[in-house]
Amino acid sequence: MTPERPRGGDALPQVIGDGADGPVEQFATPLPGQGQLYAALDLGTNSCRMLIAQPRGSQFQVVDSFSKTVQLGVGLEASGRLSRASMGRTVQALRICQKKIEKHNVRRMRLVATEACRRARNARDFIRQVRRETGLNIEIIAPEEEARLAVISCAPLVNTSTEQLLVVDIGGGSTELVWIDLSRVVPEDRPKSIMRLHAGFAPQGDGNARVVDWISVPLGVATLKDQFIDVEDDAARFALMSWFFEENLASFSPYNADNPREGFQIIGTSGTVTTVAASFLGLRRYDRTKVDGLHMSSDQIDTVIRDYLSLGPEGRRTDPRIGRDRHSLIMSGAAILQALMRIWPTDRLSVADRGLREGLLYAQMSADGVLEDGPYT
């Protein structure tokens, strides 16, 4: 079955994302008189990623970006600390980000760190080192804010027919899940009602999106892999990872709920989800315009995952659809994805090549009132 794209699903940032052989970038030239530039940086357990964008109507146009695998969380599971080598790699990446910010004369920015820095005992020392060596002020955000930012970035992909929405963000160190009830929102207002969650998950009254529950599971592609690194058999390790992740969802209230298939939508945002989509499409060089907004069936996802398992570790390492930076983490991400598709009442997944950085940009621009449809209050 041919995957489908929703109408207008590519309407957000016009940048082609990170792929197997590096990103294929299509940047816009900043337009004079169209407003100042904004920067958003996401320093995760595995990657350092940044976008620089300019408001353009009700969306934004990306003018520059950066993405680098820094493996900040390597060794964190065992030691509880960020290693000297991982901090050195990360500072080098952040120096490049600082130069891009300076080159574009960016004044409005939000630069955040997530699970690795939340957990590391020496994270504050690392943040001070970054400020001293690059001049960048990185803030460590709480899991709820990370989940909220991922949710609002996906707002353009929400179907007007969706009554129950699950947004899943599979990160390097944690996975955020947010369950949202849209049944009392006027259908045409459902995407905008997701944007209004930028202010928080607290109830906003009748006619608005209602967050039923959310959870931040301290298992992402890197941390889940580390849990089972001593299991040698590839297929057994995959099965154990999927089972273990599902076990950690027991406290998520919709987990055992009887939810109808009709009106249910699950949106997945992460490198895992976009890599699975790119593999299904057979893309040897990643193209965001073909991936973002794609609908995949659970059978299509299972076919890709079975293909990954049949390739084995060496085959995955050399597969151009997966890429050199992701081959060692793709099976832990696939285990999470398969568990989620097994649990909830849907056989379709909406693929989102967007996440924390886009959410940071939307939140800043909405707060400044520079989007045509905003501010979302």
TrEMBL record:
Q: Where is the Ppx/GppA phosphatase N-terminal domain?
A: 52-365
Q: Which Pfam families match?
A: Ppx-GppA (PF02541)
Which CDD domains is this protein grouped with? ASKHA_NBD_AaPPX-GppA_MtPPX2-like
- Cite the GO molecular-function annotations of the record: pyrophosphatase activity
InterPro entries, A to Z? ATPase_NBD (IPR043129), GppA/Ppx_hydrolase (IPR050273), Ppx_GppA_N (IPR003695)
Q: Its domain of life?
A: Bacteria
PANTHER family in the cross-refs: EXOPOLYPHOSPHATASE (PTHR30005), RETROGRADE REGULATION PROTEIN 2 (PTHR30005:SF0)
What is this protein identified as? Answer: Ppx/GppA family phosphatase
Species of origin reads Fertoeibacter niger
Record lineage: Bacteria, Pseudomonadati, Pseudomonadota, Alphaproteobacteria, Rhodobacterales
